[in-house]
Amino acid sequence: MFIALMSHDNKKDLMVQFCSAYAGILSRHNLCATNTTGRLVAEATGLNVHLFLSCQHGGSQQIGARIAYNEMDMVLFFVDPNDSTMDKELLYISRLCDQNNIPFASNVATAEMLVLGMDRGDMDWRNIVNPKHKTALQA
Questions:
Q1: Phi/psi at 96 (nearest 5 deg)?
Q2: What domains can be seen in the chain, in order of their start residue?
Q3: Model-level pTM?
Q4: Model confidence over 26-65: pLDDT tens digits?
């Protein structure tokens, strides 16, 4: 599965903690992230994370393009509800996920449900939806 990791500034530590707690599961999947979030996760966990640009420099658009082409299987975007400066990015990503039936978590509780469900096989339907997208990020 291809999993995108994103987080607001005040939630980056939480994303690192989450990825540390679920590193065993996440290590069996393809991770990508906006630059700062991905770098922090990779340094703290040793997970292999494909880095896009930082959010301010277009990383959200890069991930959004992958969602639009159905190349993502899940998006974990830890949102700071008190940070209104990122409302456009959140709306952009969540809308793309809704349009393309990509599971989306905006908080740690939902992310945990998605990751544990994925580990159980609850996300195997994604291979049926688009079996050829598995090579998209490898190109």
A1: -60, -40
A2: 2-106 (3.40.50.1380)
A3: 0.90
A4: 999 999 999 999 999 999 999 999 999 988 889 999 999 9
